[in-house]
Amino acid sequence: MKSTYINHLALLALLLISGACDDNLDLAPEQSLDPETATSTAANINNLMVGAYDLAGDNTLFSGDAQLASELLANDGELAWRGTFQGPAEFNRKQMTAQNGFVVPYWTQGYAAINQANLVLDNLDVVTDEAQAQRLEGEAKFIRGLVLFELVRFYGLQYEPGQSNTQPGVPVVTASVADASQIEFPARNTVEEVYAQVITDLTDAYNLLPESNDEYADKYAARAILARVYLQQGNYAAARDAAHDVLSNSGHSLTANYADAFNNDEDALEDIFAWQITTQDGLNDFNTFWATREFGGRSLTADVTVETPYFELFDDPNDVRSQFFYEGNGTLVSSKWQSQFANVPFLRVAEMHLIRAESNFREGSSTGLSPLEEINALRARSNAATLGNISIETILTERKRELGFEGFTLHDLRRTTSNVAGLPYNANNLVMPLPQREVDANPNLQQNPGYIN
Amino acid sequence: MKTNYSGLLAFFLALITHVSFAQNTFSGVVSDSDGLPLPGASVFVKGTTTGTQTDFDGNYSITAAAGDILVFSFVGMRTVEVNITEQTPPELNITLNLDSQSLEEVVVVGYGTSTKRKVTDNIASISSEQIAEIPTPSVQSTLAGKAAGVQINQVNGKAESGIKIRVRGVATISSSQEPLYVIDGVPMINNDENINDSPINPLVGINPQDIESIQILKDASSAAIYGARGTNGVVLITTKKGKEGKTRVSINSSYGFSRATNKREWLNTGEYVDLFLEAGRNSGEEAYVIDVFNIFAEESVWRNGTVDTDWQDLALVDGSVEDFSANVSGGDEKTTFFISTGYNKTDAIIRGNTLERYSFRTNLDHNISEKFRVGFGTGISKTKVDRLSNDNAFATPLQAIAQIPFTRPYEDDGITPNANTLYYNFLFQEFNADHQSNIWRVLANVYAQWNMTEFLNFRTEFGYDFNSQVEERFFGSLTESASTNGFADANAVQNEKYVLNNYFTYNQDIAEDINLEAIIGMSFEDDRRRLQFVEGQEFPSDDLQTVESASEIVGGGSSRTAFNFLSYFARTNFSLWNKLLFKASIRYDGSSRFGADERYGWFPAFSAGYILTEEDFLKENNTLSLLKLRASWGVTGNAGIGNFASRSLFGGASYNNRSALTPTQIGDPSLKWETTTQWDIGLDFGFARNRITGEIDYYNKTTDDLLLDEPLPATSGFLSITRNVGEIRNSGVEFVLNTKNFIKDNFRWTSSFNIAFNNNEVTDLPGGDIVSGVNIVREGETIADFYLVEFAGADPDNGDALFYLNTELPDGSLDRSTTNDFNEASRIIAGSAFPDIIAGFTNTLNFYNFDLGFTFQGQWGASIFNSGGRFQSASADFFDNQSRDQLDRWQQPGDVTDVPQARLFGANGTQNSTRYLQKADFIRLRNISFGYTIPSNFTEQFGVSRLRLYFTGLNLLTFTDYNGWDPEATADFNANNALNVGREFYSAPPAKTYSIGVNIDF
Which is deepest, B316, B364, B610, B869, by most CB within 10 Å? Predict the structure, then answer.
């Protein structure tokens, strides 16, 4: 009898213990929000927007690596790749593989940024302040248009002016994904369709964004990218007008000295838009690959050094741009990235001058300044001798002198249908393969020609 | 002099006792039924602490008075008690018979114990003797080769290196592959808390000398009692406890040295210069090569070879292992105790890597009354590790092999590392950096047991596990952190777990020949982890190395996470006529880790056994002494995923120091545990009075609802989602054979052989292939096979690297023609990352006072991909020093070789292909020990009951065709990745250790 009583008591104790524990199974993560909360307030939408800059401004995309790909893919002896990373070495050899460790993140990081922008666009209804909603919509479209433009240039063949441009570009994704049911398996849009989306997004951004917007994109940042897009398309009139708008109205102008345009912790007067790097976040991969170890680079000599053919571009020994180098263990290294935590200039006024000058020249117009005056003005800042006359070649060479190593070379060669290190501008092996993981994960994607495995 | 004095004193005291209590000395030989002496048998006076053990020849000597009871016992033998009377002769020879139940060896099972005989499951048992004295600081390493079907690999040669244990193959793709560890009934924390992708063995704080036994629950029937965490097997660790009788003091001390199991051959300066000048010529870059050479050394140096540095010798150095442990144990009828302390210092074979551990353990058991019993066990340890970068860093020592041989390691002063090297000179890490981890581990448990009736008891156990780790790094102004004048960080993690178990055990012979045993209970477990870190840069001096001195704090943070389990379990064992055995168990598990809709799951198991040798027709059979058939079926789970994997989450981020939000994962709300259904049929046998015993098992283990990180198109913004999809099947055969080859008076030799064949197949994968780098998961194939373009050697005409096209032809066969364009070739499944055969062979020999034990371990069927091959053996593609086999490069038309023409920047076959894939079969002399016990009649003069000197070795011999560093060494930064397996990347080989030591028992 007694033992039964004890058993009952013990069993009761057991049940009590277990009952008390049941609620404990509801644990919530302490460092994360669920999607509903994350998209429920205007403040959070604003945070999501800041997050989109964070993703796009990542070192694997716009803070160095995309520009490195453009320069190395176009390298014909002006540069030497001395680093160990195989990804850039493959660019330099023009022999990319679909597992290239740099090709993969351009894509994955790019679409992460696009999704982030889409999350902002799809949840704007919670932003009740009209001006704020407009600004956020503009910024999100700026990021989406910018990233799509970058992706289509790398993963698709060059846009051919006046053609139908049905060559495959990249998928245009305009719907956000926040839960599993929204995942899609998009096919590639044509280059024409991608450019159309890019122009729509950037034009909307231009219309929606304020005149100035701290370190974030303002309307002239959108307009400046549009100038770049039109130039890439060979739409010189539109490129000229966009660049002219920026030069006339943005309030940005050339810094007094060439050196002042680089290695700045705060945006320079010349920066229409720059990616922000601080000691606490952001990584400047220009610095990683183009600077010596002393300045935060990967190696003693710098991974990318500048070689004799580049110096032969200069026509005046007093041109400060020809001296904007330092010595790295017996090699020459560009001085543009000597500060590890400096911002990454992305849209400089100098580029706008060059776009306007080239477009005016090609269109036979003189919007703003005549091409000759404009080029000479730019040269004057760097103490380079005034030119008496110019041709399209001198303008393009001026671009190389002014914008060297900033990621323009491949795109300039392709849009001008020039040979790239002996390869035709539309060679298959100048087009990046779609990342292998992406082709494996999405059966609707067609790999670029020349990449079987 | 002093010893003699104490001996004299002891003798004198003994005389006094003898006289005072009129005791008599009894002595004799304890032997088995064959008349063979039993060394180590326990002899004690019942109810006192007076006791002794028999020596090697079975001799004992003890004093007792009339009325005392002498107890003679030996594991596996029936205990004999002798009542001492005035008439008892002083010479008392005792024969112990094999326990009629024979295999009465106690086996620890979940929530209780059983005996080898009664168990109907497949459980591998490893005793303390098998793991003692192996000169390695990690418990798991000592188990290699000892248990059938259990693969144990240390990731690489670092002293604190993570260890992978795979029980019966890999049964999951994305969730944890590690077994559940349970120590004295408490599930252990098993989180690798490294901060630099170089894993730390979470069990590093455990002193192997404190372990009494380890049981590995391999089949579902045994593991199902641990429900949602049983799939990968359960490792039950039982620590030593005191035994009733004389107090024993045991000391073990050893010291040894170690070196790498293998070194590879690299080019010397002359070979290097020739090869690279040739590579430069072949690429039209000879002038550039000379330019680069001139950067790193004067022309006279590299031309004449006046500097020829062996960088490998700088990285792989001589190490040492020092181990000391002491314990005191004993007790009486009411209380038993075990107290121990240990010290281990391991200087690894990799420069700069050192581990030092202090450990303490106390186990105490006390009978309050016949009804109540309580106990307490606690283990405390402190481990300090001087750590290294992960394998994928210039700072890691082994990457130094890439340095040019004509660069000097040091400046002329011989102290300051030379900064002008091709890559960052790792010697700066020793000179100007510091990386240390301090780990504190507390394992405590307390229990109370209430014997409510003769048949029923209630036991409550409360366990606590605390793992605290502080990892601090400093990189000075000469290191890779030069641009920021130094960098330092400090990371602290506190992980704690408490576990509450309450259960009833019922055990009764309900009728003649019918025994019923049952348990029912519950368990609650709560695991919380906190993390804090801070990092800073800009240091005023290289002597100020903590973040305190950083003028700029550049990062910091803290986080908290938790999970818990609430479980109910029941098990019943039922035996009829001692020959029919039945078992059924059920566990009901709930966890915070799973979606609200799928929070609980049932995990049932059944098993049965039939002991044929208990049947009359076999009972008297002299040849066949044991024949037991076993069959089991059960369901287990694998809950080894992130704490909140089922949810879509957004986390904080920042841009320009402004707060931001960004999606961090996308989740499937219906996510639940993986379910494994396993059946096992087995046969236990014994021949010739169990001189030959063994086990054969066949198992089939099917895991469905795989927790899979399914790759997503990145166009969604996400790379993967964890889902329950797919199915994997592991099936195989395990065979164990134990033989007593010789049992003669002064010569005994026993052997134990085990071999396991496992066949792993992905049987269902709805989303199609999952490719992760060079590994693939494909339906119909083994998990994580290598998926590579097939290398076809060098083109004899021009030295181009060739690849097989391997594109599928219309008839389904593969196109075996070759191409020199890597991008034209298709990938094929080229090998497996996991072995399909693993085996172990242990021998123990005793010859007079000598003893010898050794274990061979073997593995067949796995391959290793050398991810570093594209740098190390790359036809002089870049300036990295090359493996010597690159000298076989193609040089002129007609050369037939596997090494394509040397071409600087030529990428001549450097892509990921089978060029860098190799079979990693091996047989290894895993451990060996050779000892000599000084005759006890000599040592007892000094009060020492046993004094043994020994030599012990680890990994002394390795037989393999693999030409990398070691067939077990893989990249540590991939160690926690379930798919990127079998890859090597500048991964240090394990240590080969030679130690000498001494055991002293008082």
Answer: B316
